[in-house]
Design brief:
By secondary structure, the chain is an alpha/beta fold. It has two domains: 2-92, Alpha-Beta Plaits; 110-403, 3-Layer(aba) Sandwich (Aminopeptidase), CATH 3.40.630. The chain has helices at 2-11, 27-38, 50-59, 78-83, 100-103, 122-135, 184-198, 204-212, 223-226, 268-280, 312-326, 347-353, 372-391, and strands spanning 41-46, 61-66, 69-74, 90-92, 140-147, 153-159, 171-176, 214-218, 284-289, 294-296, 332-334, 358-363, 402-403, 406-407. An eight-stranded mixed beta sheet has the order 5-6-8-7-9-12-10-11, with helices on both faces. Helix 7 (184-198) packs across helix 13 (372-391) and helix 11 (312-326) crosses helix 13.
Length: 422
């Protein structure tokens, strides 16, 4: 009862300043500061066996596992539940030095794309995205696909050799920064779009991809997390939406273990991605994250090698291995064959079960958040692997079904192939 009283009083306190850090007398006090200031806190705790880890993954948002340590994101609802477990913990603070280049307003200008400058408004990001269409009208078309929970507009960039019309081409979906403090995904996608457009005339791979693929990119899925209050704040960026929903735990997926998703109602950001995919039926997708260096494949919701996707050995892992080798190697591939945990409601599980496609998650770097130098390094390293992955959309059974000489909308499926485990 005494602890509950403390929770009530501290949650009512606002307007803390950074000087409060010198007054912290416990991990509990520090955690409460972050919950009041940012609506989330990262804690490092410990587990004794796989069963305990799985139980934590069901109840909380697990970010990563290192040995017997587990890092978790907690909000005001889940923090009291965590305290009831009576586990020791430490508050983990993700901080990164802001690049001098970002402080100076990104003086290392490219044609269009730059990493957001510290304290820049979300409108600057919007202008940068729209300038892709202005600068490369033959390859890029920008459209609004929805709004966030804070009414920021969500932007999609279509890339093709004739972006004004929908063509009979395989469709690729690329999403980034679904977690607002993982900015390398946003930056890498913007750099990819610019690289494809600027190298079309001189690079055979860029030309082949643009000529034969219809690509839809949402570089920044969670702008409210990256731009708290509408302003880019690297060290104040947060993982979740203002509703405290983790977008990458909210997608409808197969029922695995105890539950299918940790945020079944999702948020407007998730709904926008689902609506886009339903309209376009993207055949291959990738979602870019940070926190480790790996290529994560379905099923994330099982977290065990005995329940892997039926395409894992024949397709998913070989493609992942090739992406890794193209990017210099060293990337762990898979799900249960890396030290991991069960995650419910991920976009790649959704794409493989209900999205009518195949999906991967690329974890680009260990850093969270990600400044410009980290993001640029990740983009440079993974560009060859990313390009290779996009090209995979052209392999396998494909074609157009006709009726009386006219194409018809149809679906070809192997019964029960995408069941959630084998």
């Amino acid at each position: 009862m005494r602890r509950s009283g403390i929770v009530f009083v501290l949650f009512s306190i606002v307007g803390f300043t950074t000087s409060i850090f010198s007054q912290f007398t416990s991990e509990y006090d520090e955690a409460m500061w972050y919950l009041n200031d940012r609506n989330e806190v990262i804690v490092k705790t410990y587990f004794e066996n796989r069963a305990e880890l799985d139980a934590l993954a069901v109840s909380f948002i697990v970010d990563r596992v290192e040995g017997t340590s587990v890092y978790m994101y907690l909000d005001k609802e889940s923090y009291p539940r965590f305290l009831k477990l009576n586990k020791s913990f430490n508050v983990h603070v993700n901080k990164v030095e802001v690049d001098n280049i970002a402080d100076a307003g990104n003086t290392q200008n490219r044609a269009v794309v730059n990493f957001p400058a510290e304290n820049s408004a979300y409108s600057a990001y919007e202008s940068m995205v729209k300038n892709l269409e202005t600068t490369y009208p033959n390859f890029c078309k920008v459209s609004e696909i929805g709004t966030t929970t804070t009414n920021l507009k969500l932007w999609c960039v279509k890339v093709s050799n004739n972006p004004a019309i929908d063509q009979k081409k395989p469709r690729f979906l690329g999403t980034g920064t679904m977690h607002g403090n993982e900015q390398a995904g946003m930056h890498s996608i913007l750099r990819l779009i610019e690289w494809l457009a600027t190298n079309y005339q001189t690079d055979a791979q860029a030309k082949n991809i643009i000529d034969n693929t219809e690509m839809y990119f949402v570089p920044l899925v969670n702008p409210s997390g990256s731009y708290p209050g509408g302003v880019f704040k690297l060290n104040s960026s947060v993982r979740r939406t203002p509703n405290c929903a983790d977008i990458n735990r909210s997608f409808p997926v197969p029922t695995c273990s105890d539950q299918a998703t940790q945020y079944p109602n999702g948020d407007k950001e998730r709904d926008a991605i689902i609506t886009l995919n339903n309209a376009k039926t993207c055949h291959l997708s990738t979602d870019l994250h940070t926190g480790m260096v790996a290529i994560v494949t379905p099923w994330a919701c099982t977290g065990t090698a005995s329940k892997k996707h039926p395409d894992f050995d024949g397709y998913l892992k070989p493609v992942g291995d090739k992406i890794s080798s193209k990017s210099g190697g060293g990337m762990k591939v898979g799900w249960a064959n890396i030290e991991w945990y069960s995650a419910y409601g991920t976009i790649f599980d959704y794409m493989n079960s209900k999205g009518n496609g195949r999906g991967f998650c690329l974890e680009l770097t260990n850093s969270q958040p990600c400044n410009e130098s980290t993001s640029e390094s990740a983009w440079t390293k993974f560009r060859p692997g990313y390009l290779y992955m996009i090209e995979q959309i052209h392999f396998g059974i494909h074609g157009v079904i006709h009726c009386n000489g006219q194409p018809v909308k149809a679906k070809i499926a192997v019964d029960n192939h995408d069941k959630y485990y084998t």
